[in-house]
Amino acid sequence: MQEDIIARLNAQDELLKKIYSSSEKTRKYFLWTMIATAAMFILPLIGLAFAIPAFLNSYMGALGTF
Fold this sequence. Notes:
This protein is mainly alpha-helical and 66 residues long. The chain is built from one helix and no strands.
């Protein structure tokens, strides 16, 4: 009886270790997905911060020559 309980506890311990490992991999995957998504949103905004003033400057310069 005692050995059966110990065997079950050991089996549960093994499963808990596998579940923990799997959940950590999933957490890291979601973290890097979130970082990549944020980068793909923020980097174009930074680029637009430089591109829009340059575009407006050249557009206004072209309008001023006529």
